[in-house]
Design brief:
There is one protein chain. The N and C termini lie far apart (about 45 Å). The chain folds into two domains: about 200 residues, Vaccinia Virus protein VP39 (Rossmann fold), CATH 3.40.50.150; about 120 residues, 3-Layer(aba) Sandwich (Rossmann fold). The chain is about 35% helix and about 25% strand. The strands form three sheets. Strands 7-6-5-8-9-12-11 form a seven-stranded mixed β-sheet. The structure holds ligand DWN, S-adenosyl-L-homocysteine and zinc ion. Ligand DWN binds next to helix 10 and helix 12.
Length: about 400
């Protein structure tokens, strides 16, 4: 059994997906022979309730100067972060010359709004290529992994922060202790922490097993977050369930006793008990649901293939690396994956080696079925692809269940 990443209790393993490549390791044919694989397995810590990966991929192998995910590829996410920026700015309004720090700031999708408004800000983004895009947008960005040491340097150079932000990044950092110790140094006494990540409750309820991949080292609930931050003198003062990324949770934290705890926090605790997030059986049942989902998806794809139908994947997401490798979906079942990110186009998907093609190839020759690997963006994608449906094209989704959308 592994020691827990959050509390050093012992983690109970509940599921292995087998050997997996780097989720965002899109590659050229010449690289097939040297592609690295790691076992993807998850466990549950009964002491602090943190769900976590059992084997970690070194962070430099995932986040580097050729990182393939650019946040601004989704119009709806851009709108989501525009609204978050507006909310944070309203909170900061009474403060003189506020300072905002965001980690995992990627291409500046959130901080650009602070930059445009002339608010003092700093993005911390280790993937140098996406950090550069942010700088070109006028976002002050340091290319580094955030930890206690970096926090000390930021305070020395810029002073303490009023708000610490992170979207879809805290769950990427297995050594969160060093991050929280850093936040403790960085944040003013009355400062706030706001971060959001995919929510464990949604993953369990929707069997969205594809949220599990190398970059996501931790799977948060209110319960595990309260426990972890509580050890550093912080408490959760608010929670906001969000629809983005298939079901996320925004946690707002402050130093203990500084701010009123909202009723939403009490309600969410009760909801988590109802979901059984504190019980190992819940995760064993999740494993059975995942296996069932895999069986259904594979039979559907084989049946369609047997009928001579063309199936194309839509959006070469990180999540699709788990689905294709775990289900054994290769180019004989899915012809190619359509994706709008230039650096992924012309490459092959990690492990399964399905060709990734520009969206124009999808639009020029519609398949019979499109397998929606970007199911979390279904609303945005289905709306803009109405023409595909108009000519009889059908969508296949697998979250919350495997189905062909009528
Ligand atoms: O946590 C993470 C989230 C925030 O983003 C990271 N670890 C990595 C990444 O996960 P993902 O790759 O599963 O993200 P998305 O946003 O579900 O998918 C992005 C991909 O989808 C991009 O390659 C672009 C593509 N896409 C597309 O081809 N057409 C996306 C949209 C909305 C589209 O219309
Ligand atoms: N916030 C963006 C990006 C999420 S992807 C969004 O929600 O769309 C996760 C990002 O976190 C990547 O850009 C990755 O380079 C960055 N990251 C990973 N580990 C980090 C760390 N220790 N400190 C800061 N950023 C980190
Ligand atoms: Zn633990």
């Amino acid at each position: 059994m592994n020691p827990c990443l959050a509390c050093s209790g012992l983690v109970t393993p509940f599921m292995s997906f087998g050997r997996m490549p780097i989720a965002n390791g899109f590659l050229a044919r010449e690289q097939f022979d040297s592609e690295p694989f790691y076992e993807l397995a998850v466990g549950f810590c009964p002491a602090c309730r943190m769900v976590q990966l059992l084997n970690l991929v070194p962070r430099e192998n995932m986040f580097h100067e050729q990182y393939a995910f650019f946040s601004s590829t989704s119009v709806r996410m851009a709108e989501h972060f525009r609204r978050l920026a507006a909310e944070v700015r309203t909170r900061l309004a009474p403060k003189p010359d506020p300072f905002v720090v965001e980690i995992g700031s990627n291409d500046g999708i959130l901080l650009q709004h602070f930059a445009q408004a002339g608010v003092r800000h700093l993005g911390v983004e280790p993937s140098a290529n996406v950090a550069q895009v942010a700088r070109e947008r006028g976002v002050t960005t340091v290319s580094a992994f955030f930890d206690e040491d970096l926090a000390r340097r930021i305070v020395a150079e810029h002073g303490q922060a009023d708000v610490f932000l992170g979207a879809n990044v805290m769950c990427h950092i297995p050594c969160l202790q060093s991050v929280i110790a850093g936040i403790d140094l960085l944040l003013k006494p009355d400062g706030q922490i706001m971060f959001e990540d995919p929510y464990l409750g949604d993953i369990i309820e929707k069997t969205s097993y594809d949220q599990i991949y190398d970059e996501h080292a931790l799977y948060f609930s209110l319960s595990s977050i309260s426990f972890l931050f509580g050890r550093y003198g912080f408490e959760v003062v608010d929670v906001t369930p969000l629809e983005v990324h298939g079901g996320s949770m925004r946690y707002t934290l402050a130093r203990q006793g500084r701010q009123t705890v909202s009723d939403a926090v009490t309600a969410q605790r009760a909801h988590e008990r109802g979901l059984g997030l504190e019980k190992l059986e819940t995760y064993e049942q999740f494993r059975r649901h995942t296996e069932q989902s895999r069986g259904e998806l594979v039979s559907l794809l084989r049946r369609l293939r047997g009928e001579g139908k063309r199936v194309v994947g839509y959006a070469a997401t990180s999540k699709s690396t788990t689905v294709t490798n775990y289900c054994g979906i290769t180019p004989d079942l899915v012809e190619f994956i359509s994706d709008t990110t230039p650096v992924k186009q012309g490459k092959f998907s990690p492990g399964a080696h399905i060709p990734v093609r520009p969206h124009a190839e999808f639009a020029a020759n519609y398949p019979d079925y499109a397998l929606l690997f970007g199911w979390n963006h279904a609303q945005e994608i289905l709306a803009k692809e109405q023409a595909f449906r108009d000519v009889g094209g059908k969508w296949i989704v697998y979250v919350p269940k495997v189905q062909v959308l009528e």
